[in-house]
Amino acid sequence: MGVELTGKTLGLIGSGNIGSITASRALGIKMKVIAYDPFLSEERAADLGVKKVEFNELLFTADFITLHVPKTDKTAGMINAEAIAKMKPGVRIINCARGGLVDEYALAEALKSGQVAGAAFDVFAVEPATDSPLFNLPNVVVTPHLGAATTEAQENVALQVAEQISEYLNNGAVTNAINMPSITAEEAPILSPFVKLASHLGAFVGQMTDEAIESINILYDGKVAEMNTKALNSAAIAGVMKAQNPEVNMVSAPLLATERGIKCSTTTQEKSGTFDSYIKLTVKTASKEREIAGTVFSDGKQRFIQIKGINIDAEVGRHMLYTTNEDVPGIIGTLGQTMGKNGVNIANFTLGRKDAGKDAIALLYLDAQPPAEVLAKLEATGMFSSVKPLEFDVS
C-alpha cells in the first residue's frame, strides 16, 4: 500500500532555488510546507507560502523530509542517528542535493526498524556509488546522481555555452562567469583591489553572523563610487554568504540573496572624509546591525578602517582573531598570555576603542587558526563579550 501526499507535511532543509521550487510543487498538491534555513527571512517564507521553523521542529513535525543544501562542515552528516530518532515514526526522506548530508548507515538501520518508512536518494557519500548500506533495501529508491540528465537540460546548457562564446568572440563580452562578474579590460587594474576589499568586508560580517540576514547595504564613498559598483556589490554579497555556503560565487550571490529574501541596496556619495575612497558594509538581522568599512591604500593593500563605529587601521590577514570588550586594563595581557601558554603565535596586533572605558576591539594576526579550547579559555575569563576566529582568502 502507498501513501498520499495531500494533507501531509513536507519539511524542506534549505529553501534556495530548488528548495523554493519544491515548495511550490508541494503546495500545488495541497501539502503543508515547513522550512529550515538559517538564511530564510520571515518575509521570504511568507512569499513562498511556507512556515519557517527550527531544525528540531522540522524533525518532529515533517511526514516527508527533503534536503536542498550544499555539503559544508555544518551540513555534513546533519541527518544522523540522533536526528532520525527525533523524527516522526514512518517519515520518508529524500536527498537529491549532495552525498554525505545523511548518515547512510544510520538511515539503513532506521529503514529496517520502521522508524523511517522509505527513502529516495540520487546522491551518495562515495560516488560513483558501487556499494551503499541503502542498496537492496525494499523501501528505498536509488538513482545514480542523474538529477540533471534530461534532454531539455542538456540542450539548454549547450545553447548557453554557444551563445556566450559567440558573444565573447564577437564583442569581447564576458557573461555568466563562474568566479567573477563582467569586467572590462580597462577596468580590471583599478577595480581588482576594490573587488578584494568588498569580498573581505563581506567575509568579515558573514563569519560574524549566525542568524537570518534581512538586508545588506553597501556604501561607496569618493572615487570608488564612480567605478563598476555592480562587480563590487557581487563581491561583497558573495563574501557575506560564503560563510554559510562555500559554493557561492560572485555570479550566484545576488541571485541567492534574492531567493533568501535579503534586501540588497547601495548608496553612493562624494568624498566625505580622509580617504579618497572607502566602502562601508551594513548588514541587518532581526536582532543586530553590523557595520564595517575599508579602503585600498596606494600600495594596493586592503585595510579595515572602521568596525562597530570604532576607527581602526588593520591589514587583512589569512588567520585572524576578533575580540570585543570594555576598555579595561589587562585585556592585552590576557590575550597574549592565553595565546602564549597554548602555543598560538601572534604575528601582529591591532586595537581600537570608542573612548576610555568604553567599547573596544582587538584584531590578532595569527600563524594558524586557534584551537577551540583556546577560544573557550578566553571566553571563560569573562573579559570578552565576543571572541571570533576569522579566516580570509588573501591569495
Number of helices: 11
Beta-strand percentage range: 25-35%
Globular, elongated, flat, extended or rod-shaped: what is the shape? globular
- Do you know the CATH topology of the largest domain? Rossmann fold
CATH architecture identity of the largest domain: 3-Layer(aba) Sandwich
Number of strands: 17
SS-based class = alpha/beta
CATH class of the largest domain: Alpha Beta
Sheet of most strands: 7 strands, parallel
Compressed to H and E, one letter per element, the order equals: EHEHEHEHEHEEHHEHHEEEEEEHEEHE
Helix content: 25-40%
Radius of gyration, in Å, reads 24 Å
Relevant CATH superfamily of the largest domain: NAD(P)-binding Rossmann-like Domain
Detail the topology: elements first, then pairings.
Layout: E1 9-13, H1 17-28, E2 32-36, H2 42-48, E3 51-52, H3 55-61, E4 64-67, H4 81-86, E5 91-95, H5 104-113, E6 116-121, E7 140-142, H6 151-171, H7 188-208, E8 213-222, H8 229-242, H9 252-259, E9 263-269, E10 277-285, E11 289-296, E12 302-307, E13 310-315, E14 319-326, H10 331-341, E15 346-353, E16 359-366, H11 372-380, E17 386-391
